[in-house]
Amino acid sequence: MSEQQSRQDYWKANLRLVAGCLAVWFVVSYLFGILLVEQLNAISIAGYELGFWFAQQGSIYTFVILIFFYASRMKKLDRKFDVHED
User: Domains of the chain: which residue ranges?
Assistant: First the structure.
């Protein structure tokens, strides 16, 4: 595989990962926290309506998980394409 093709493949994999993370972020924060809040409020967890929970806490937990997920996947991608720093 040529150097140029390897760079393109690395960039495409990186963009797919970012797009996937952004899609999850969008669904959790915008759809669950704003648009679908009324439907989710019909479900209750530990006394809190699910829509409220996603808007206040669930989205924050999801963002933190996404950060660690992204870092882990990028580490694997960097090693796969031999662009890692260590």
Answer: 3-80
